[in-house]
Amino acid sequence: MKSLILIAIVCLPMALITQQMGWSQTNDHAGHGDSLLAEAMGGAADTSATSGTPGASSSSTVSEPEPHPLPPQASKSARAPKAKEVSRPPIEGSMVGYVDDAIVGNQIRIRFDAGFDDNVPDRAEFFYPQCGCYGAGAPGPRPGAANDINFQQLYFQGEYAPVSRFSVFTEVPIRWIQPQSFIPGTTGGLAPFSNQSGISDVRAGFKFALLSSSTHSLTFQFRAYFPSGDGSRGLGTAHYSVEPSLLYFQKLSDRWAVESQIGGWHPIDGSTGINGSNFAGDIFLYGIGPSYQLVDTGKVKFAPVVEMFGWHVLGGLQTLIAAVPPPVDASGTNIVNLKIGARTSIGKHNSFYVGFGQAVTHAVWYKHIVRAEYRYSF
Description:
It contains two helices and 16 strands. The protein is mainly beta. It folds into two domains: 1-30; 94-377, Beta Barrel (Porin).
């Protein structure tokens, strides 16, 4: 596949250049022939005018034929039209709320999440680091191992596309957490940690559209997470991580569209469990979201959207029952959520989304989540 893409990238411009040169040479020859013909006709007319006819008056004149018209733009108009860059769907064409947007463009996004009942917050160090109740070397919050946490996150996101197929983006999240209960025997007789708030892990990355047209877009996205949140307070993971993904947008009709995502989350330099294995683990993620434009007045669009998003934990540990004995292996855990929401777009720039998510598996990152979002595209 990479070879075919490389061949196409190299050969297509050469073919266009060759075609353009061929047209130019043909038109140049045609223009030269027309000039010779015009000169010949002009010469014939002059001879006829001066020689005259026997017996004719010297004052009589012979009308001179008009020269063969040769528009100066003839060679240009004869050339083949230049190939136009394939148009891509407008940024407001994306209707999903949880699956990442495959469309490359300029946008500013403000998003708010409220999640409820996270019963294993240190699973694979995806939400926050391993519980500090394990002692020295455990970077997570302490005292106590929380088994029920509510949280809120406010995201400020910006994306800039210097060209039509490539963009860079950054996300700055602010997090609030409220532990609701703790695993008995994990506080060491001390008061467990309380509510926390502050900046979470900043993310940044880029998007590159591998395929782009007015009806579909296949985009590679790379996102990096930076440990700017304080892991000891449950505000971040206390390690770097990367998340490459493939994003796809497909317009099925004037009203139907489907968007999807497949990728993976990989932690870098996560903590080590007390049994010597890595507490952080790789996670495979996937999602799909069909939408239907129920209302389209030209200025206002309203589209319900149903999304399914899942995670498969490939490794790492989790505090599931108690801090002692050692943590439980998290690999093989499957988490699937169903999201129902709607997006309203006003004009070409403004878009609003409101949605609700419900876990449909026993293992969860949260049992319920509510999301509200405002997006401005330009």
